[in-house]
């Protein structure tokens, strides 16, 4: 590690001010940032910790939606997001207890790892990512691998999830990291079904439009039978070929529909 300044503001305004004018980065759970700093992949001159800002913590159900503060840990989401069982189950399956008690939903979404679980939940739910300056629709937020619509110095304050009629997240996990080798989140709303896939595409989290159309007409696993997923643009690595991941997308979507039903 190397020398850097550290600040721990007590409010969002103070955090925004601390991030201005220097090579500074926001620190939430630090599950990705700290290891990347140890490997010299990141070298900020200052870290601004968000963990002392109480306004960024908590799970708040409110008239058909659930709002989760950006600094809320995965463990807290798993325990308290009971109004959205599929989301709580997703949070409970992230990493191990040490990761779940340090990592945060805001940190995960700001990092936008292509194999992270929360992006699938946000995209499938049509959630809204709220920052200190604006509200960003899920379809406008994700912008490719490790890339988002966030601007320099912008901080996620909370994420608002409309609660679906039915939902499920199914993940085929990498056993060491418990990241998604491929994961599929299916959410059924009154106006249709949304299907989001993580861990499979070179561009990060994505929607499977053909499955959404089929499931909106017939919410059953059988509706997926006639569909196929192209391997073009999917990840190929030592864990699986693009064709393997294409098959996983279909299999996990069917499992998610069965579980939701």
TrEMBL record:
Please give the InterPro entries that the UniProt record associates with this protein.
CO_DH_flav_C, CO_DH_flav_C_dom_sf, Diverse_Substr_Oxidored, FAD-bd_PCMH, FAD-bd_PCMH-like_sf, FAD-bd_PCMH_sub1, FAD-bd_PCMH_sub2, Mopterin_DH_FAD-bd
Instruction: Return the broad EC class.
Output: oxidoreductase
Q: What is its EC number?
A: 1.2.99.2
Keywords (A to Z) from UniProt: FAD, Flavoprotein, Oxidoreductase
**Is Lipid metabolism among this UniProt entry's keywords?**
no
Start and end residues of each FAD-binding PCMH-type domain = 1-166
Q: What is any Pfam family matched here?
A: FAD_binding_5
**Gene Ontology MF: a single term:** FAD binding
Lineage, top-rank taxon, reads Bacteria
Instruction: Spell out the SMART domains in the cross-references.
Output: CO_deh_flav_C
**PANTHER family (alphabetical):** XANTHINE DEHYDROGENASE SUBUNIT C-RELATED (PTHR42659:SF2)
What is the protein name stated in its UniProt record? Carbon monoxide dehydrogenase medium chain
Q: Which organism is it from?
A: Thalassovita mediterranea
